[in-house]
Design brief:
- The complex is a heterotrimer.
- By secondary structure, chain B is mostly helical.
- Chain B is 76% helix and 0% strand.
- Chain B has one domain (2-188).
- The model of chain B has no long low-confidence stretch (mean pLDDT 83).
- In chain C, strand 2 (65-70) and strand 3 (76-86) form a beta hairpin.
- Classes of the chains: A mainly alpha, B mainly alpha, C alpha+beta.
- Chains in contact: A-B, A-C, B-C.
- At the A-B interface, helix 2, helix 4 and helix 8 of A face helix 2, helix 3, helix 5, helix 8 and helix 10 of B.
Chain lengths: 202, 194, 183
């Protein structure tokens, strides 16, 4: 494998290898909690916390983990950080914790996190892994927050709880229901592909 | 009692379909749903693992974690239960039936990281279901998953011969179709509830 | 064999560290989490029974709690039920206030619901909840017009099932409370 700069490891998660729109990982949480922008943002921060610290710890201890128990060890580390995030949110932000419901503990099986440990952290240096974790989290963050903003705008007429569209606007209820989530994300994927093909980048 | 269990089964399959209303189990959805035959294999393997998970997670939850006040270890314990269960099922099938292993083997490792399994364990625990109800939840969610997976695979096979705009090919159109399917499944809502 | 020992050792030590870390955090956050739940209950009972200063709580079964509300002079001013029942898409959790004779509802508060946003979800809107204030038990509902009977409330148009669910939950809770108090 050729040596790539740390900046590249950071940047690739944003668009070129975006975990949600290109690799289609972590769809459950993306679709489920993005009915309001604030929920999206909280979810993205929780994912960032878990991904960053799991990458850090696994990057540090990967050499002493025998190959056969790699996956269970990774899962244990991830589950620990997820539970930490869950307890913290329950204690300090009960309203948000309630809105996100079981999707916080479900970060354990968010394919982005285990996928990155398997595909990247276990094969790369610690510094590269951390850059990768930050890049991937940001890639996840902008997609889910944008999705949340679009759905909240069309479904409630607000963004981050602030009324944007006047009373003339009849909210599109379907946007905050599950079907709206799938359809909006599908359109996002299409738009990104279209922009990329227009830009001539592979 | 039996009636409540049946209602849970119906709700998990149709009105509260785990894929279409809780967005659980989407990773294999986009990956495996290209052929109806592999969708059926994946569906049944998952249903089996989910039913087993419902049983073992319930036992761990009510006989170990809750009496010892270790609820905060729930997530970690559930995921370990699932991972070892999948491993065990794989070994068992490999030993007993070569054909079954050939048919289901490749899907099994994928199931561990499928959020529908852990989601089912967590939702069952949140609702304080008894063992029978939890089994129905697991079985129903599995059947609902299979149903959605097979339906979408059928539609995707058709879509291959249709003129889909280039950027939407693959994931884009799949998500939109799933969205329309979710809309159709909303027609069931109100019938029964979880 | 050596590998086997190493495998077990590594997994055990990860599990141990993780367990310690989690139990420490759990201890540290436990009180906050408990207090959040108390605050929610306290705010709800103050809404449904005006003038509540302190309350006692009694568990009836897994989903129902009977709360007795007292004013600042320590006088019993009403009962409240913290209860849960089936809505259109999932459970609805309510706090329902009654007067001391359980003949009148003093208010309701919706604590949790997963009704359809924009339709059934409107049970959380103020005008809907306010309607319950002063209704006589048991309650019922009418569609599309202002109710004349003091037992009835007006259902939300387009969300009759959710409205009906709330009415049913209120009546069930009322029956349960009556049984409990007359015991």
């Amino acid at each position: 494998m050729k040596k790539r700069s740390l900046f590249y490891e950071f940047k690739k998660g944003l668009v070129a290898e975006n975990p949600v729109l290109i690799m289609l990982l972590g769809l459950c949480s993306t679709l489920a909690v993005s009915n309001k922008a604030i929920n999206s943002l909280s979810m993205a921060l929780a994912v960032f916390f878990v991904l960053f610290f799991s990458s850090l710890i696994i990057g540090l201890i990967k050499n002493i983990i025998p190959d056969q128990v790699r996956i269970p060890s990774f899962i244990l580390v991830i589950a620990t950080f997820v539970t930490l995030a869950d307890l913290f949110m329950k204690a300090k932000f009960p309203a948000i914790s309630k809105a996100l419901g079981p999707y916080i503990p479900l970060i354990v099986v968010n394919c982005i996190i285990l996928g990155r440990q398997e595909a990247f952290v276990s094969k790369n240096s610690l510094a590269a892994s951390l850059m990768d974790a930050i890049g991937m989290s940001l890639g996840y963050l902008w997609v889910i927050v944008l999705l949340g903003m679009v759905r909240e705008l069309l479904g409630f007429g607000t963004i981050f709880g602030v009324r944007v569209l006047g009373s003339w606007f009849k909210p599109w209820l379907v946007m905050v229901l599950p079907p709206g989530s799938f359809i909006t994300l599908g359109i996002f994927v299409g738009v990104l592909n279209w922009l990329r093909s227009k830009g001539g980048k592979a | 009692m039996i009636e409540k269990a049946l209602i849970i089964f119906l709700a998990a399959t149709l009105t509260n379909n785990f894929v279409l209303t809780y967005f659980l189990g989407l990773c294999p959805f986009v990956g495996v749903s290209e052929r109806a035959s592999s969708a059926i294999g994946m569906g049944f393997a998952s249903t089996f693992v989910m039913t087993m998970t419902a049983i073992i997670a319930w036992i761990m939850d009510w006989l170990v974690l809750r009496p010892l006040h270790l609820e905060f270890l729930q997530t970690a314990v559930f995921i370990l239960v699932i991972a070892s269960l999948v491993q065990f099922v794989e070994m068992f099938i490999k030993k007993t039936s070569k054909e079954l292993y050939k048919a289901l083997g490749i899907y099994l490792p994928l199931i561990t990281t499928n959020c529908i399994v852990l989601g089912l364990a967590l939702i069952g625990s949140m609702k304080n279901y008894n063992l029978l109800e939890n089994i129905m939840l697991g079985f129903g969610a599995g059947i609902g998953f299979t149903l959605a997976l097979v339906l979408i695979a059928g539609i995707r096979e058709e879509l291959e011969f249709r003129n889909v705009p280039e950027p939407l090919k693959g994931a884009g159109i799949t998500l939109i179709v799933v969205g329309l399917m979710a809309l159709a499944f909303m027609g069931f809502s109100g019938m029964v509830t979880l | 064999m050596k590998l086997g020992v190493k495998m077990v050792l590594v997994l055990m030590s990860i599990a141990l560290v993780s367990g310690l870390l989690l139990s420490y955090t759990y201890e540290a956050t436990k009180n906050d989490i408990k207090r959040n739940k108390e605050i929610e209950k306290e705010e709800a009972i103050k809404v449904v029974i005006k003038g509540t200063e302190r309350f006692t709580e009694k568990q009836i079964d897994a989903k129902n709690y009977l709360l007795s509300a007292y004013n600042k002079d320590g006088k019993l001013i009403g009962y409240a039920m913290l209860t849960e029942g089936a809505g259109f898409q999932g459970p609805i959790k309510l706090m329902i206030g009654f007067d001391t004779t359980l003949s009148k509802i003093t208010g309701i508060e919706v604590l949790e619901n997963v009704e359809t946003p924009g339709l059934g979800n409107r049970i959380t809107e103020k005008w809907f909840k306010e309607q319950f204030r002063g209704r006589l038990t048991p309650i019922g509902y009418v569609k599309g017009k202002k109710p004349e009977d003091p037992h009835n409330i007006q259902a939300i148009s387009g969300a009759t099932i959710s409205s009906r669910s709330v009415v049913k939950i209120v009546n069930d809770a009322w029956k349960l409370a009556k049984k409990e108090i007359n015991k």
